[in-house]
Amino acid sequence: MSEEKILKDLQKSVLEYDSAGAVSAAKAAIAAKMDPLKAVEKGLVPSIETIGDKFEKMEIYLPELMLAADAMKSALALLLPLIPKGSKGAKATVVIGTVQGDVHEIGKNIVSSLLMAGGFNVIDLGVDVKTTVFIDEAKRNSAGVIGASALMSSTIGSQKDIVDFLVSSRDRKKYAVLVGGGPTTKEWAKEIGADGCGMTAVEAVALANKFSKGR
Which residues, given as ranges, of the chain have pLDDT below 70? Predict the structure, then answer.
């Protein structure tokens, strides 16, 4: 199978929400000894960007976005481990999770999926994550970005706790702290000293790209 056909199949699988097709195309790329980074950047990324644009324009909705993300993750699970660390195009590590006391995860999962599609190494800590765990895992994995999601007004204070902890430990400059979730705002991010607030999943990925450079 030609590289052109494999790339088209990867693109098609995401656009058509076809996880089985994504796995098949990824396996074909591996069998053809295609550069896995090329398969991700030329096959998966253009389609997920198209999906993201459609979601922003409300041409598709959350269920479709999640299905596209699932298809992409299915292919990435096979391709990402084959990309050498430090290879051209590889990006920073992002530690992401939902803050302590909050068990909402849909938004966080979408951001995590889009970050993976963008070539980031994503460490997803899940939900109800303690402040110290965010920081310990960021250190352990040499992450450049910490993403903290909160979906309840009663839990957004934990986002501030992460920033405060980093300041008190004199580690603040080592990490970009990005916040997101329903009750968060750009004003809130500025107030607590975070580096940015992703109001949408697409914006969150754009911020990760911005702040991962040079880290």
Answer: 84-91, 117, 213-215
